[in-house]
Amino acid sequence: MAIKRTKAEKKIAYDKKLCQLLDEYTKVLVAVADNVGSKQLQDIRRGLRGDSVVLMGKNTLIRRCIKVHAEKTGNTEFEQLSKLLVGNVGLIFTKGDLKEVREEVGKYKVGAPARVGLVAPVDVVVPPGNTGLDPSQTSFFQVLNIPTKINKGTVEIITPVELIKKGDKVGSSESALLAKLGIRPFSYGLVITNVYDAGSVFSPEVLDLTDDDLVEKFASGVSMVASLSLALSYPTLAAAPTCSSMGTKTCLLLLWRLTTHT
């Protein structure tokens, strides 16, 4: 029979594991784990097995480990992660492509019922059609002002109805109706909120930028610098092509005038 470790032994083992990860990895995804179950986490770990490690734990414990690691190694770059440890979050250490890892994590979303008191992460719309419920269940629909009719001995919803708006709390009537209709409107999984890469922290949206997007943004920036430079009559490399063109036109105009008046 396996010997059960004490709380102190577990903490020492956790410290050792986290310090090892900080030594081996330079890329980390910070993920919110609200409403994510243990089975779901196991599936995510299994899907990322090979070049990524998912680490969950108390924020205070992780912060302490990061601080101790910085004091031992002199590497303070990971201390930026401490500021991101807010709420129910986990860390995904990876040696793979950050965008591909984020996409893999996004595959493991699980449908969930609308439980009473939950804050809706999305709008919930009940579609029209036959519900399969008998006419005695019409009271649920009447309470929620959902237009219905009786068709072949069952309740049929006539038009789409926005039952719950994003950000609203789920009420008991809404929860009961969705359960009767077999609708699981919410889906939960790890949500990547921040990306750490070799000392830099940025939004996961940056991972969606393509080379064309970068070229377009760079060109836009150069254009703004050139416009400002011309307005201030201050020479810069960005404005050099325009200045050269304007200078050439000025010289040609001057030459034309001299030729015309001689």
TrEMBL record:
- Any one Gene Ontology cellular component term annotated for this protein: cytosolic large ribosomal subunit
Write out the GO MF terms. Answer: large ribosomal subunit rRNA binding; structural constituent of ribosome
- Tell me the InterPro entries matching this sequence: Ribosomal_protein_uL10, Ribosomal_uL10, Ribosomal_uL10-like_insert, Ribosomal_uL10-like_insert_sf, Ribosomal_uL10-like_sf
- Superkingdom of source: Eukaryota
- Which residue range or ranges hold the Large ribosomal subunit protein uL10-like insertion domain? 114-183
One of the GO BP terms on file: ribosomal large subunit assembly
Keywords from UniProt, A to Z, are: Ribonucleoprotein, Ribosomal protein
Q: What is this protein's function? A: Ribosomal protein P0 is the functional equivalent of E.coli protein L10.
Instruction: Name the protein family.
Output: Belongs to the universal ribosomal protein uL10 family.
The name under which this protein is listed is Large ribosomal subunit protein uL10-like insertion domain-containing protein
Recorded source organism is Zoysia matrella (Manila grass)
